[in-house]
Amino acid sequence: MAMPEPTADERLRALPTAPAHRSRWEVLESFAHVRDYLGPVVYGVLPDETLVFIPRDLAVRLATVCSVLQTAATWGELRARLPAEVYQEILWITGATDPERVSFKAFYRRARRRRPRLSRAAARRAYAALDPRQRRPLPEDRFEATTIGSYTDGDWPAWPNQEMLGWVPRPIKERYGEVLDSVFNGPFLQFSVADEAALVEAFTQHGYLCVRDDELVGKASGW
To answer: What is the pTM of this model?
Structure first.
């Protein structure tokens, strides 16, 4: 049976480790066939009338993450609907994996030392009654995306406009792009809608397959 094609993220992770002073995008730019790592590109016009290009794999991933963050009602639903590595990233961002937050497994093991006949169900009730800051999220716990500081600050997940700084070929950036600074999240690349046809042609000349998909790009950008 044929193996599935690796995603853009998987191809990126397979690249050589970037030196401390260089980002993965800077390393990626050094490859002659960068498009082979990123795959097809989708682009679209956002409600703020800016034009954004995103590697399709990344767009699908970001759109999924943003949708789940906005609609998941519990931590269990969040875990069920997100890729495992994204869920683990959220646990890390929120501090849920910090050493001072005891896991249920560790809590149950300690409790059984004191009460050998303690049932798992009783231990789970006692664990759920702990201050949420002392334990890890349970599937039934209410989830609110606003509890993720990096999300509310705009630092996570990836911002497509900022990602373009890294993967868009330098000649395209220099001819059509404008690098701006956001108040809190650093520099980002902006393209004018007026240059849409010229940009698509330029990306095509660099070997990219471009497909317009305003809905996917909007969802991936958090709109």
So the answer is: 0.75
